[in-house]
UniProtKB/TrEMBL annotation, chain A:
The keyword NAD does not apply. InterPro entries: ABC_transp_permease, LivM-like. Its main location: membrane. This is ABC-type branched-chain amino acid transport system, permease component.
From TrEMBL, chain B:
This is Amino acid/amide ABC transporter ATP-binding protein 1, HAAT family. Keywords: ATP-binding, Nucleotide-binding, Transport. The keyword Acetylation does not apply. PANTHER family: CONSERVED COMPONENT OF ABC TRANSPORTER FOR NATURAL AMINO ACIDS-RELATED (PTHR45772), HIGH-AFFINITY BRANCHED-CHAIN AMINO ACID TRANSPORT ATP-BINDING PROTEIN (PTHR45772:SF8). One of its GO terms (cellular component) is plasma membrane. Residues 4-249 form the ABC transporter domain.
Automatic annotation (TrEMBL), chain C:
InterPro entries: ABC_transp_permease, BCAA_transport_permease. It is a multi-pass membrane protein. This is Amino acid/amide ABC transporter membrane protein 1, HAAT family. Keywords: Amino-acid transport, Cell membrane, Membrane, Transmembrane, Transmembrane helix, Transport. The lineage of its organism: Bacteria, Pseudomonadati, Pseudomonadota, Alphaproteobacteria, Rhodobacterales. It comes from Roseivivax sediminis. It comes from the Bacteria.
């Protein structure tokens, strides 16, 4: 079905189920319990899960398949955001034209940057993409202020000349983004006992688009094109002497992954119509690299897992503070409690980046294949154990 | 005129004359060996044939068309395949996928993006790949990681990848370098079978005289970048100039 | 003309910093074959060595002076730095004032140690891993290092003044026969440039004239062969890494008065220093130095109002533009050897 093998179809179905049920799955704790802060089932965060999922899926098409490490992918995300906000300002608050424009603009931008950067590979490629992204960042802050609104960031305003739509609503406020009338911020709230579940229109739009993006990436992975990209990573010399020029393939992969990033940027702006230059900074590029390798570069599901993992921990960790920690460890004797809190303190709240950096290092050192490889290793361990138990069971009657 | 004609090719690296007035003609359907002591310019010559190097002067014609100034992938598309000294394969791909890539290259040229079709839908190509794997006795290793193969199997796989493109000319760069005698003999047999089954021209660069004399129809002896003699194997064996070149190296 | 000279001078200090960082990066890349994204963090740590020493030297004890009262009418608390108590007030004050130059001595062992630990503990295990992995793990390390510094020193820049004697400016133009007040140049920048030149000279002569340096240079050219000679190249490379770390650290120490150290200064310099290395030629030491000064000065020229009026924003991107052009036109950089990471 859908041109997928059984295994891939199962994977797609699993991801579909997870994203559709996310409002339930991510809110396992009653809203009045002390664990409620571990809930992630509110629209804003769920949207970020799937949007960065899209970003990482796209990055993985480049890095996971071809091995070209781009350190400037956030530039495409930023460009996508700007394009979407301009669409909101000039044309309509409907998100569809905005998303389409952001994908196209990011694609063209990627074509330009890729055409130049892909003339080099390895570390040179990484530095070229980094240089381009930093350049875009610097320009967005300075010269391009008429387009980007510099440090303040691009926002929609009351006097935008919206061609299809109104500049301001009847009550004089700024109109909101919508999909053919369905407001993106519209949220249904379901109260079940002490539990509260939120179903946001914006989230479901993003989730649907992510599923489509994921499906597309499976198709690309399984296609002759995907195989070519893996061949590029494996041995460019052989490819060259097999009558194939690697560059059009890598450029196509670069543009596709740039378009994914643009899509993610467009969605970010659709959920919250503003765009700032900091989205293009190289730390943002580093984050998507981390998501991809944390999940497992070159695997289908890895980037999605990695994006969810990082965004979840970013959210939870950065919210933790000493009071919360003291609450947790209150059962310990006072001295020990203070010591434990003091040890954890640097890693949470504003120290979240420290945890992020450590995770980065630990993954690269111990788990180069990411979470997916980790899962496989654990799986193999269990299978071997069970296998040996079965063998033992079989041997017993024989004795 | 042969399938491959090399005329007055010169190549200098700084002050070093790597190739000096090389003339060479490889006849269609023959096995032509190029031998010579270390530093004789064999590899430089080969690199000039496949587009990795461009000669300073001279011409290289293949099937009536010049190869000079073309990129290696363009030259491959003209019908020249190359086997490397250490097997160059796609180590991260399966043996089967290694076979599919040259088939796609042959069918689609240097670039065509099949991004949304499945590899498994290419039934015709899959059949072809399996047939070729069978010919080199590797069908049972179809799903293995190519990088995990033994050196001998890597060599076989590389040859299969070259042959499946049905090249007019197969260039072999010391195909038995670093092999034990038994493996060398296997490779000789493999090459003989390959040659018997199809119309193919081979050009072998080789150090091992045993291999050369078992396979070659004609031999060119290269020394210090210049061809000394070109003749059939029988005449090469006792040729004084050849002895001199090799003994000169030994002394 | 005077404007050109002024901009050249202005470019020198930044160029010196680029050159020093790029020199270390190149040393590490050339000898160990490792792409070190944490090198900017070493520069930053160097700057914080200056901050730390200043704080250590200013450490004080509190006494209560009953003869005076503070504005609440309580007896006045007087802080006396220990150095004042030990060496007398004037010498003590002098020591605190000269803490930045003194930090040079302080930072060398600290940076060497950090370098050794980093190489033995982490980098060593990445010699054989792909460059992408090296980039990623050192990138992670850079984040960790800067977050640690942020944790202990806060997020705000910490002013770290140079000694009073070196804080003023002098009229460089008069020396060259221009009108007074045309080319004014701060002393400290001149000091920084001279210091950088000294360090660069020291590194080069160390590599040129010692057996150790000879082996390292041979190792840069052909690692395997040197290993075959039975020379324990690994140990030497560890020391080399320490030296590279120390060079970056020294660059940081002396930069502290120019730009108040903050935790992310390393990242800002790292990206540019990498660009410098690439422009100079991966693995070429003279290339790194040359490109460092060249790009520093170019950046300074691009910041001239006349240039900005002509091409707005050029000062922000000039270095990247140069890097892109160089990489495309001459991939091995200005002075790179052929074959070193050409692709």
């Amino acid at each position: 079905m859908l041109g997928l093998g059984k295994k891939d179809l199962g994977l797609l179905a699993a991801v579909a189920a997870l994203t559709l049920l996310a409002p339930f799955l991510l809110n396992p704790f009653p809203s009045d319990s002390s664990l409620a802060q571990f809930n992630a089932g509110y629209p804003d965060l769920m949207q970020r899960f799937v949007i960065f999922g899209i970003f990482a899926i796209g990055f993985n098409i480049l890095f996971g398949l071809t091995g070209y490490l781009s350190f400037g992918h956030a530039a495409f995300l930023g460009v996508g955001s700007y394009a979407a906000v301009w669409m909101f300002k000039l044309l309509t608050m409907n998100v569809i034209p905005a998303i389409i424009l952001s994908v196209i603009v990011a694609g063209l931008f990627a074509l330009l940057i890729g055409f130049i950067s892909l003339r080099r590979s390895g570390i040179y490629f990484a530095i070229l993409t980094l240089a381009f992204a930093q350049m875009s960042f610097a320009l967005a802050y300075s010269v391009l202020t008429p387009i980007t609104n510099g440090e303040t960031g691009l926002q929609i305003a009351l006097d935008d000349p919206r061609i299809l739509g109104v500049s301001a609503t009847a009550d004089g406020s700024i109109p909101v983004t919508h999909l053919f009338g369905l407001e993106m911020r519209a949220t249904e709230i379901l109260n079940l006992g002490p539990w509260q579940f939120q179903f946001s229109a914006g989230y479901y739009l993003c989730a649907a688009i992510m599923l489509a993006a994921f499906y597309l990436s499976i198709r690309i992975f399984r296609s002759p094109f995907g195989m070519m990209l893996r061949a590029v990573k494996s041995n460019q010399q052989r490819l060259y002497y097999t009558g194939l020029n690697a560059r059009p393939y890598t450029l196509a992969a670069f543009v596709i992954s740039g378009m994914y990033a643009g899509l993610a940027g467009g969605l970010l702006a659709s959920m919250d119509p503003l765009a700032g230059a900091e989205r293009m900074q190289w730390t943002a590029s580093g984050e998507v690299v981390l998501m991809t390798i944390l999940g497992g570069a070159g695997t289908l599901i890895g980037p999605v897992l990695g994006a969810g993992f990082i965004k979840y921990f970013e959210n939870i960790f950065s919210k933790l503070n000493d009071n919360v920690l003291h609450g947790w460890f209150a059962f310990l004797p006072d001295g020990l409690e203070n010591a434990v809190v003091a040890i954890i303190h640097p890693f949470v709240g504003k120290g979240w980046h420290l945890t992020l950096g450590l995770m980065f290092m630990l993954v690269v050192i111990f788990l180069p294949g990411g979470l997916v490889e980790g899962g496989q290793r654990i799986g193999r361990l269990f299978r071997r154990k069970r296998g040996s138990e079965e063998r033992a069971a079989q041997q017993t009657p024989a004795e | 005129m042969g399938l491959l004609d090399v005329k007055d090719v010169n190549k200098r690296f700084g002050g070093l004359q790597a190739l000096g007035d090389v003339n060479l003609s490889v006849a269609e359907n023959s096995v032509h060996a190029i031998i010579g002591p270390n530093g004789a310019g064999k590899s430089t010559l080969l690199n000039c044939l496949v587009g990795k190097l461009i000669p300073d002067t001279g011409s290289v014609m293949f099937a009536g068309r010049s190869v000079l100034g073309r990129k290696p992938y363009e030259i491959n598309q003209m019908g020249i395949s190359r086997v490397f000294q250490t097997p160059e394969i796609f180590g991260d791909l399966s043996v089967f996928e290694n076979m599919m890539i040259p088939l796609f290259a042959k069918r689609d040229g240097a670039f065509r993006m099949h991004a949304f079709e499945g590899v498994t839908q290419e039934r015709g190509l899959i059949g072809e790949a399996e047939k070729m794997l069978d010919e080199v006795d590797m069908l049972d290793k179809r799903e293995l990681h190519a990088g995990s193969l033994s050196r001998g199997d890597k060599r076989r796989l590389e040859m299969a990848m070259c042959l499946i493109q049905r090249p007019k000319l197969l260039l072999l760069d010391e195909p038995t370098a670093g092999m034990a005698r038994a493996d060398t003999n296997n490779t000789i047999e493999l090459l003989k079978t390959i040659k018997n089954k199809r119309d193919i021209t081979m050009c072998i660069i080789e150090h091992d005289m045993h291999v050369v004399f078992s396979l070659a129809d004609r031999i060119t002896v290269l020394a210090q970048g210049t061809p000394l003699v070109e003749d059939v194997p029988e005449n090469i064996k006792g040729h004084p100039k050849v002895k001199e070149a090799y003994l000169g190296e030994a002394a | 003309m005077d404007a050109l000279i002024l901009q050249t001078l202005n470019g020198l200090d930044k160029g010196s910093a680029y050159a020093l960082i790029a020199l270390g990066l190149t040393l590490i890349f050339g000898t160990l074959g490792v792409v070190n994204f944490a090198h900017g963090a070493l520069f930053m740590i160097g700057a914080f060595c200056a901050v730390t020493l200043q704080r250590i030297l200013s450490a004080s004890y509190v006494t209560i002076d009953d003869s005076r009262t503070d504005f609440l009418g309580n007896p006045m608390e007087v802080e006396t730095p220990y150095v004042h108590a030990w060496f007398g007030e004037s010498v003590g004050a002098g020591i605190i004032e000269w803490s930045v130059p003194l930090a040079i001595l302080f930072s060398i062992p600290v940076m060497l140690l950090i370098g050794f630990v980093m190489e033995r503990g982490l980098i060593k295990h990445f010699y054989k891993r792909p460059h992408a992995d090296q980039i990623l793990v050192t990138f992670g390390l850079a984040i960790v290092l800067q977050e640690i510094v942020k944790y202990f020193y806060g997020a705000n820049p910490i002013p770290t003044p140079a000694p009073d004697a070196l804080t003023g400016s002098f009229d460089f133009g008069v020396l060259l026969g221009f009108d007074p007040n045309v080319i004014i140049y701060p002393y400290w920048r001149l000091v920084y440039f001279a210091f950088a030149a000294l360090v660069i000279g020291a590194v080069f002569s160390f590599l040129q004239f010692t057996t150790f340096g000879m082996v390292v240079r041979a190792g840069m050219a052909d690692r395997e062969t040197v290993g075959l000679l039975g020379i324990n190249i690994d140990k030497r490379f560890t020391i080399m890494f320490g030296i590279a770390a120390a060079v970056a650290g020294l660059a940081g120490v002396m930069y502290a008065p120019i730009n108040s150290p903050n935790y992310h200064m390393g990242m800002d310099f790292l990206v540019l220093s990498f660009v410098v290395v690439v422009v100079g030629g991966m693995g070429s030491l003279p290339g790194a130095v040359l490109a460092g000064f060249l790009l520093g000065i170019l950046e300074s020229f691009a910041s001239m109002t006349q240039v900005i009026n002509l091409i707005p924003g050029i000062n922000q991107i000039i270095i990247y533009v140069v890097a892109i052009v160089v990489l495309l036109v001459r991939p091995r950089g200005l002075m790179g050897r052929k074959g070193v990471m050409e692709e």
